[in-house]
Write a structure and sequence with these properties.
452 residues, mainly alpha, Growth Hormone, Chain: A, transmembrane transporter activity, transmembrane, cell membrane, MFS_trans_sf, Major facilitator superfamily domain-containing protein 10
Length: 452
């Protein structure tokens, strides 16, 4: 009887993982269509008299003058795109824990449907945008409503078996890798096929709308609710306090919202959760900064065109998908922390190789190690965090983790690009790679506490 029950649970978990993988892949394909078009979109709106565009351009010009970025269109577009990306990440920092906590009360499926509708609206705004103001509004709506990743992670966290959760987090990573590999190619292709050169972005925007509709229908028809009625959360604190816990950065780093429930985690669990959150933030802060400045380095040192940049990111995406699909999903839960340490250790020589690379062989050697770390760290840390908290707290826990990652991705590129232009590429990559010892030391503290 026990064997049959386990077999049924494994079958249910496998089905949930497949549905989440496909739903998230559809979501990410729509999300990444815009990535190769952003420089052209910015060029397009720079020729129009748009007050909002000119205001943001003045901020970019101030930053460029402050850190010494050369007056070149390529760098302006990267910085402008980074500014919009930081805004998007800041909005996710605010919304992710709110959606996660709401899913603990109302269920994963309703919140996932709601955020998917919001993302669909953002794509419709993009498709009909004739001014930069409407385009920026579409990015703001998308940033606020982009709760799919934390909600999908909460669904995986609802699975009863640690091995299934580990596999599910790895498959979320695979969906990311495939989405960020295939989406940009599709976006570029449909932009080139546009009959109207003035509205080159409309084809990819309409395709993004179709992806979001397909995603909505797929979730509606295929995804069951994974949060049981008797597991829905209830807070012991006031609504104002709950909102404060979900928006205050200090409270987020302390996972305070998790403690204000009828069944708060033990002190040991809370300590582990806080350390894992710090490791996640520190890793993504340094990683996202160097990831952002990589396009500066390849353009400056190797004169990479947009097509060569695209091929480079295609290589990274394929390598990550191979590592996640073939290795990360098979890592035993008891080995995840050791594997994260190994992956972070590998990223130090990766960025050192990139720092000194004066030929493509050395560069791609560094990118291969970079891809390994990128494929392992986030899925393994997410799987570890997913084991904390009761069933009624998983959405809050995963939402807070996603929020910390969004904050890191908002701040990291600004700091790293400042160091890059003030101190040089080699100094930026060498110094930043040395700072990866910070998450390594935090992991050491976590393991020593477990031994005690």
């Amino acid at each position: 009887m026990a064997v049959e029950k386990k077999h049924l649970e494994d079958g249910h978990s496998t089905r949930i993982i497949r549905v989440v993988f496909l739903a998230l892949l559809l979501d990410l394909l729509g999300f990444t269509l815009i990535l190769p078009l952003l420089p052209s979109i910015l060029d397009h709106y720079s020729q129009k008299e748009d007050v909002v565009y000119q205001s943001l351009q003045s901020i970019v010009d101030w930053f460029r003058g402050a850190v010494g970025v050369p007056m070149e269109t390529k760098y302006n577009n990267v910085l402008f795109g980074g500014l919009i990306g930081s805004l998007y990440s800041l909005l996710q920092f605010l919304s992710s824990p709110v959606f996660g906590a709401a899913s603990d009360h109302h269920g994963r499926r309703p919140l996932l449907l709601l955020t998917t509708v919001g993302v669909m609206i953002s794509y419709i705004l993009w498709a009909v945008s004739r001014s930069f103001s409407v385009f920026l509004l579409s990015r703001v709506v998308g940033g606020v409503c982009k709760g799919s990743v934390s909600l999908c992670a909460a669904i995986i966290a609802d699975l009863p078996c640690p091995k299934a959760r580990n596999k599910g987090m790895a498959m979320i990573g695979v969906a990311f890798s495939l989405g960020f590999t295939l989406g940009p190619i599709m976006g570029a292709y449909f932009a080139l096929r546009s009959a109207d050169a003035e509205l080159f972005y409309q084809g990819p925007a309409l395709l993004a709308v179709l992806f979001s509709i397909a995603d909505l229908m797929f979730i509606l028809l295929m995804l069951p609710e994974t949060l049981h009625k008797d597991s829905k959360g209830s807070s012991d604190s006031s609504g104002v306090q709950v909102v404060g816990d979900l928006l205050n950065p200090v409270a987020l780093f302390n996972f305070s919202a998790v403690t204000r429930t009828k069944e708060p985690p033990s002190k040991q669990q809370m300590h582990s959760l806080k350390v894992l959150g710090l490791v996640y933030f520190a890793y993504l802060f340094f990683f996202s900064g160097l990831e952002f400045t990589l396009s500066f380095l390849t353009h400056q040192r190797f004169q990479f065109s947009s097509m060569q940049q695209g091929k480079m990111y295609f290589f990274i995406g394929i390598a990550m998908a191979a590592f996640q699909g073939g290795y990360a999903r098979r890592i035993k839960p008891s080995w995840q922390i050791q594997t994260v340490r190994m992956a972070i250790l590998s990223i130090i020589p990766a960025f050192l190789l990139i720092a000194v690379a004066w030929n493509l062989v050395v560069l791609y050697g560094g990118l291969f190690l970079y891809s390994f770390a990128a494929a392992i760290v986030v899925p393994c840390l997410s799987a570890q965090v997913s084991g904390h908290g009761t069933a009624s707290q998983k959405g809050t826990v995963m939402g807070i983790l996603r929020s910390l990652g969004a904050l890191a991705r908002a701040l990291g590129p600004v700091v790293a690009s400042s160091v890059y232009w003030l101190a040089g590429a080699e100094t930026c990559f060498v110094v930043s790679s040395a700072f990866f010892t910070v998450p390594l030391l935090l992991l050491g503290c976590l393991e020593r506490r477990k031994e005690d």
